[in-house]
Design goal:
- It is a single chain.
- This protein has 188 residues and is mainly beta.
- It has a single domain, classed as Roll (Pnp Oxidase, Chain A), CATH 2.30.110.
- 11% of the residues lie in helices and 38% in strands.
- A hairpin with a 2-residue loop joins strand 11 and strand 12.
- It is globular and about 55 Å long.
- The protein starts with 13 loop residues before the first strand and ends in a 15-residue tail after the last strand.
- The relative contact order is 0.19.
- The mean pLDDT is 96.
- It binds flavin mononucleotide (FMN).
Length: 188
């Protein structure tokens, strides 16, 4: 028997990402932890993030219309939690966490050096959905630590990166591979 639960955003797991966005006034980038996010189009490559208007980062994204999505590893769980509980309104989260800002290449702002993958994106559309604004953004470039590239050199080595995910209210890791795309139709 299945029990009915009242509606809530029920999909899980979701990614746990660190979004960086330039803060013109403070001349530095702010970091916000984001779980309401994902890939939304393959061509052009687009991603989405949902950010509450009450977050300090929301106004920064609306001003710059570009950001970096940094993919943290499970080892960065402390930093992820700090950036998701402290506001950039009254703290420099790079200083607070000890994370290292590196100048981004195609957008204003910074990558987080410790994250093996940094995705630069430009906002194309903003839709207010209710308590969240949905930002739809085109991927301009993806930067990956050389040591985390797979043998094709065209994609990250997903098995090497212990990427963090989120199942509301706990952090989980995505490290163990249990099958490969198309294995059910592949003839050996
Ligand atoms: C794991 C995790 C996921 C989060 N996901 C989101 C999210 O998707 N959207 C959002 O608006 N806030 C999210 N938050 C809350 C913000 O990260 C948090 O309020 C942060 O302090 C806002 O920072 P800012 O005020 O510097 O922008 C999340 C927090 C955590 C810990």
């Amino acid at each position: 028997m299945k029990e009915f639960l009242k509606p809530y955003p029920a999909v899980f797991p979701v990614p746990a990402l660190l979004l960086t966005v330039y803060d013109e006034e403070k001349k530095r980038s702010n970091i916000i932890t984001i779980a309401w996010a994902g890939n939304v189009c393959s061509e052009p490559p687009m991603v989405s993030v949902s950010v509450r208007p009450t977050r300090y980062s929301n106004q920064l994204i609306k001003k710059e219309m570009e950001f970096v999505l940094n993919i943290p590893t499970a080892e960065m769980i402390r930093e992820v939690d700090i950036c998701g509980t402290v506001s950039g309104n009254n703290a420099d989260k790079f200083e607070l966490t000890g994370l290292t800002p590196l100048a981004a290449q195609m957008v204003k702002g910074h990558w987080i050096k410790e994250c093996p993958v940094n995705i630069e994106a430009r906002v194309k559309q903003i839709i207010n959905l209710g308590v969240h604004d949905l930002f739809l953004a085109e991927v301009l470039g993806v930067f990956v630590d050389a040591e985390y590239l797979d043998s094709s050199k065209r994609r990250p080595d997903y098995e090497k990166i212990n990427a963090l995910a989120y199942c509301p209210e706990r952090y989980v890791v995505t490290g163990s591979v249990v099958g490969r795309y198309g294995f059910t139709i592949k003839e050996d």
